[in-house]
């Protein structure tokens, strides 16, 4: 049975990029497809891209193009871009112009059969046994495939616009007892000092996280006893 929580509004997302990346953990991404099919997934991993001095950001040093325009649009705007010429990544604009939060992983909550169907179609494989529920959305491109998020159907949508009934965020007031790991972002190899900055955040011990950082987890545990 589907549970509808409070939809997040502009004032909920009105935060600096790093604060927003942390705030989104535990929140629920909701996708409404044709025929009123509903998909839901809990956000369990995020990365923030700060713009400005952040050399890993598409808007580094104020760079502004037609492609990255959503990063400069109002809070809660969807920024979808293609990576490796074949996969999409999904971001949400934050308070600062040119800054956005990348959603890296979701814990599937509703509509898993449909998510699995999308994933299988993309891989052109009939082997569904290897697609465990927890792993349907354990990566930025995987979650886009599972939720049918593409540049042509999601880019520039504002998640806080109540007229938009295809994609939005919900609060889950009962999901707040979790620990967060701070670690370096993934796949950032040519941004010099920004390669190692702790701008990736994930929920400790959640099976849907794309990649654990055991060193960061060990440091977190040690700090708990200091």
From TrEMBL:
Documented EC number(s): 3.2.2.21
Molecular function, one GO term: alkylbase DNA N-glycosylase activity
CDD domains assigned = AAG (cd00540)
Q: Is the keyword Chaperone assigned to this protein?
A: no
Short name of one Pfam family: Pur_DNA_glyco
Q: Per the record's keyword annotation, is Amino-acid biosynthesis included, yes or no?
A: no
Superkingdom, taxonomy of origin: Eukaryota
| EC class of the enzyme, as a word | hydrolase
Q: Where is the signal peptide?
A: none
* One GO term (biological process): base-excision repair
Subunit annotation: Binds MBD1. Binds SSBP1.
Its job: Hydrolysis of the deoxyribose N-glycosidic bond to excise 3-methyladenine, and 7-methylguanine from the damaged DNA polymer formed by alkylation lesions.
Family as reported in the entry's similarity comment: Belongs to the DNA glycosylase MPG family.
Protein name according to UniProt = DNA-3-methyladenine glycosylase
Supply the source organism for this entry.
Answer: Psylliodes chrysocephalus
């Amino acid at each position: 049975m589907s549970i509808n929580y409070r939809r997040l509004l502009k004032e909920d997302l009105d935060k600096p990029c790093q604060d927003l990346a942390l705030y989104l953990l535990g929140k629920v991404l909701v996708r409404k497809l044709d025929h009123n099919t509903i998909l839901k997934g809990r956000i369990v991993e995020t990365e923030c891209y700060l713009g400005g001095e952040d050399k890993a950001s598409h808007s580094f040093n104020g760079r502004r193009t037609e492609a990255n325009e959503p990063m400069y649009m109002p809070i809660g705007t969807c920024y979808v871009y293609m990576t490796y010429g074949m996969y999409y990544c999904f971001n949400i604009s934050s308070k600062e112009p040119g800054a956005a939060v990348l959603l890296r992983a979701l814990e599937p909550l509703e509509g898993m059969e449909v998510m699995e169907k999308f994933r299988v179609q993309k891989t052109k494989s009939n082997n569904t046994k290897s697609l465990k529920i927890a792993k349907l959305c354990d990566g930025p491109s995987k979650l886009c495939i599972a939720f049918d998020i593409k540049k042509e159907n999601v880019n520039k949508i504002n998640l806080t616009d109540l007229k938009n009934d295809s994609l939005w965020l919900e609060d889950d007031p009962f999901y707040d007892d979790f620990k967060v790991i701070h670690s370096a972002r993934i796949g950032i190899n040519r941004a010099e000092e920004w390669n190692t900055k702790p701008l990736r955040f994930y929920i400790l011990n959640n099976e849907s996280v794309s990649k654990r950082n055991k060193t960061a987890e060990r440091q977190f545990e040690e700090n708990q006893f200091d």
